[in-house]
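HOLO CASE FILE
Compound: zinc ion
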Amino acid sequence: VSLQAVRVELGERGYEVLVGRGARHRLAHVVPERARKAAVVTQAAVGLAVDAGIEQRRFVIGDGEGEKSLRTIEELCRGFARFGLSRDDVVVTVGGGVVTDVGGFAASCYHRGVAVVHVATTLVAQVDAAIGGKCGVNLPEGKNLVGAFWQPAAVLCDTEALDGLPKRERVSGLGEVAKYAFLGAEGLERLPLDDQVARCVAIKAAFVVEDERERRGRRALLNYGHTLAHAIEAASFGEGPGGGPPPPGCLHGEAVATGLCFAARLARRLGRVGDDRVEDHDRVLRECGLSPILPPGADLSELVAFMRRDKKARGGLTFVLDGPRGIEVVEGVSEAAVRAALEEMPPG
Ligand SMILES: NC(=O)c1ccc[n+]([C@@H]2O[C@H](COP(=O)([O-])OP(=O)(O)OC[C@H]3O[C@@H](n4cnc5c(N)ncnc54)[C@H](O)[C@@H]3O)[C@@H](O)[C@H]2O)c1
Ligand SMILES: [Zn+2]
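Model generated. Tokens follow.
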């Protein structure tokens, strides 16, 4: 197999990200040498077999945002203990962002931290969730409120896994890809899929290296499109009525696409960009096959309230916005401008 390698240069915490079809077959080569057991955290729907080359046991977690909970962490860690997983062993996640977030966080705290290797099987996980060490779970009070920075020992982005993804998941993931087109990867939407993933990984890696723990603010730019996306997800909490599939526009990547479309309009409202930049955003989203919408029945006041509570917002409404100096964090945006930009959005 021919794989592309992207290194995340973080000194002793540095690691390799391998991208391409069949990347999962490199697992045995990338687990730490000292590891004797591998706890494989995955979901039933993922259905991807991996071979860590050492004794391994599968730990299957449930599906959806609701499973990103402290209860799941407790169950996993108890399972690891019964399996006899030691500090020298390894956790292997095989799945999308839910699995890498939950499995990564369990690895970060089990025995005060064991190695983790992510085998990322969705676009969102490959270009975002599995890279950079952020992991964690939700509380009823909000998404991702409990977590850690825990860098993996390696990441395998197996693009073959994407073949098995439901169409909606695939397209949704392109919302995250589209974000990178505005963060330094012009023309990204026209590359072959493997190259798209590798390019996104390289951009994310560069941001992570510059600001590993999101202290200096640069890494915050990765949240382009995410302030509204998180509000949409929080408002619906990612699940449809009765635990069914999320309503249209509510999958993470779908919400990011909507967030990007909105961010361009908000930037225009604030006089930071002209119509051409808004059209650029719309074109990239369109070429990625995305049609950004506010979820049906979205309550604008509720969305604004959630955006005020965004953890990046220190005072008032804070967004990552395009402008004459490129994309940057903009604080103290007026509620009137936000509402006006929301009203410009295509309805669900
Ligand atoms: N830590 C970070 O930096 C970061 C970044 C972005 C997103 N996230 C988190 O990631 C989550 C979203 O991740 P996601 O979009 O990957 O969703 P997901 O993990 O829920 O996966 C989507 C669905 O696809 C299934 N699936 C996964 N791989 C498959 C495959 N190869 N074939 C068939 N089905 C497969 C899953 O079982 C699930 O049902 C959110 O919780 C978000 O907060 C974290
Ligand atoms: Zn995201």
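CASE NOTES: Residues 128, 176, 226, 252, 256 surround zinc ion (ligand 2) (CB under 6 Å). The chain has a mean pLDDT of 94.
CLOSED: yes
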